[in-house]
Amino acid sequence: MSQRYEHVRVAVIGSGFGGLGAAVRLRREGITDFVVLERAESVGGTWRDNSYPGCACDVPSHLYSFSFAPNPDWPRTFSGQEHIRAYLEHVTDTFGIRPHLRFGHDVLMMRWNTGELHWEIETSRGAFTADVVVSATGPLSDPKVPEIPGLDGFPGRVFHSARWDHDYDLRGKRVAMIGTGASAIQIVPAIQPLVAKLTLFQRTPPWVLPRMDRAIGAGERRLHRLLPLTSTVRRGLLWGIRELQVSAFTKRPNQLGLIESMAKANMAKSVKDPALRAKLTPSYRIGCKRILLSSDYYPALARPNVDVVASGLTEVRGSTVVAAGGAEAEVDAIVFGTGFHVTDLPIADRVVGADGHTLAEAWKDGMESLRGATAAGFPNWMTIIGPNTGLGNSSMILMIESQLNYLADYLRQLDVLGGRVALGARPSAVHAWNRRVQERMKRTVWNTGCSSWYLDASGRNTTLWPGTTGEFRRQTRTVDLAEYEVIRAPRTAAADRAAGSTGAVPAAVGEEGA
Questions:
Q1: How far is it, in rounded angstroms, from Cα 362 to Cα 255?
Q2: Which residues form the signal peptide (predicted)?
Q3: How is domain 6-142+341-488 classified at the architecture level of CATH?
Q4: Helix 17-28 and helix 396-417, axial crossing angle in degrees, nearest 10
Q5: Which residues contact 52 (CB under 8 A, 6 or more apart)?
Q6: DSSP state, 53?
Q7: For 433-454, how does the pLDDT look when each residue is reduced to its tens digit (9 = 90+)?
Q8: In this structure, how many other beta carbons lie within 10 angstroms of the beta carbon of residue 432?
Q9: Whole-number Å distance between alpha carbons of 341 and 345
Q10: pLDDT digits over 88-123, tens only?
Q11: Which CATH number fits domain 151-228+255-336: 3.10.350.10, 3.40.30.10, 3.50.50.60, 3.30.565.60?
Q12: What is the reported pTM?
């Protein structure tokens, strides 16, 4: 090797909820020989990168936190970005993760070495080898900006919501907001009072329900500190309510009619103009795209300095932005709230498996993994928030913790097997798991015909989990070795002589049902 490699048992990629959760779980399992490779200079993942005005979570605070690290001091029922990021810093310190962090280490390539049974990892600041890789880069890490003719010649400022330009003062500016997703509905009411003119390019209107947010009083927080059980009960109630909602999304979409009526009432309350209401009313079943929460989005759109264009941005001519329907506006800044690379994860281009192909090549026809964690052809590689682990109505922290259970048992199985060993997901097991998932997906609300970021280029939903979080936890509690091939390192002639052995030993031994 031309460069010096530092060897660790486990390399974790990313330091958001998934990466920090993995680090905490490793330490709780007694594993301290690991690093967390982070391309930025601080922890936080999406809650570090997304610092746009109004950024907050749409899952209640006491549910959007680790079960092993409850926070009795959440200031609001739906916490803002700054509080969630502070929580992740607190988790990092409380569980002793800082010595394992390697900031500024952008992963350039990961290659599986079949002979040595380990991963070779090249980063922007050094190289590592690892017995196991845990990829926790997350699906909301790489912003997606559409290719718009003329955008390169725009004389003003252009930035994505996840890369907010805090040095640019929007006061008195003419601003184009592209997109109407979860970020946009928070940005619009936050900047509307500041800007001279706000033009919102809406390709598809979202369904928006009121955001039942409030401050959590000092007495309430004190109760949670003095009696931790009250915080646990609160979390349990929030979880249980959302578990009961799942069947409407996954089995009986017609039950969502009442929720749709509530969303229409929310709109009618603030939007009195019939023409504007018509623009803002979706034509698809509520839940097909993510349901958004806001109590100030519609009031902001009704203000005189806001113009809603009911089509997407198709061209930029100098400082003029042009919509698909022909509408034009002169603007000083363009803000893209156009989401992320979710079904075409950029990290997949940097993972090279046992056969020399990248994960992106393996997933060219759509992402597939075993129990949302492991991929065929990529031994000892596991992803957190992998394919079909997303949720439409609850907290992703619940899914992350389930995957951490699976990771812990995966490492225990390697210990029990002993020696230089790896586990490779069997293609048959991966395909069987995904066939079951996709079959269940057919009757969900997410497959009722709308276009959403849940679907890949072929229209397949490779993003969401078509069941409850409790079911997913049961499905990922332990590793079934029958779903894996046990791969052992080739024995050398010297090792054979030392063991008094004759005859060849295969490099890979499938221990079915071990």
A1: 38
A2: none
A3: 3-Layer(bba) Sandwich (3.50)
A4: 40
A5: 161, 162, 164, 183, 186, 187, 190
A6: T
A7: 999 999 999 999 999 989 999 9
A8: 13
A9: 6
A10: 999 999 999 999 999 999 999 999 999 999 999 999
A11: 3.50.50.60
A12: 0.93
